[in-house]
Amino acid sequence: MNQELKQKYPAWCSDNDFGKFDTVLGDDADSLISCSLLKHIKGYTIKWFYDFSNMFGLDLTSKKEPIGVDMALVHHKTWDNHVTMLHANDYFNPQSANINNIKKNHRGHYGNKYAGSTLLQIWSYYDIPLPQSERGKQILLAVDIAFKGHYNSRFNPIHNSYLKELGFEELIDVLNRHSIKEMYQIVDEYNLYGKIKIDDNGILTTDINLAKLQGFFDFQIALPNEPFQLVRRYKRKGEDIDGRKSFDMNKMFSFALTFQNHVSYTEKMN
């Protein structure tokens, strides 16, 4: 990662106390692979699961501070890749490790956003060597469809400029060697669109092809196999925002623009 950019990330990202934090897992491959990488390099363990309507906990006695992974938390430490600002002077979470917040990317110039994955940011920040195999590099780019902008003539310069800032010029070469059709085939082969869910016994399940993913990275990708407990419920909402200038962030737990004119958020329940 470009050192000037790296210095703008929150100070907690550079904490060298191995195992200091727990992680909050989201419901997709970007979150799970990111959590798995953080466990490998930082000793952080998945102790929470957030499905954007409910929070579940695995060890409610843990004294470690949780870090959200691939979620736009409003007031807590989190790794994230979403646009969260409606305008240049809007609130953003100062504890969010998110290149879009660092660069003050907002709704007004949504087309300039970083459209890569949370995983690529973490990989870059901690200077992790890229996978050795071509397929491994393709999988890395396929998580959260982080390749898509490369194949659009309008967004290609923006997409590739972010990869360069992250120190991933080699991944641009990978994309140049493969078509967008080949990259979507990677998504399909490993079911990277798959979701993580919790069953009636509190056990996490997924249809992401974890068995097939093993071996491409130097760490294990796995869900906890212990039962989680429901801790808190949230009101999950989504709405178009044409003309709306602000939201009450004191009520919010997570908040993100999922399209230029649409926000998805969760409100705390009393």
TrEMBL record:
Domain of life, source organism: Bacteria
Protein name: Uncharacterized protein
Taxonomic lineage from the root: Bacteria, Bacillati, Bacillota, Bacilli, Bacillales
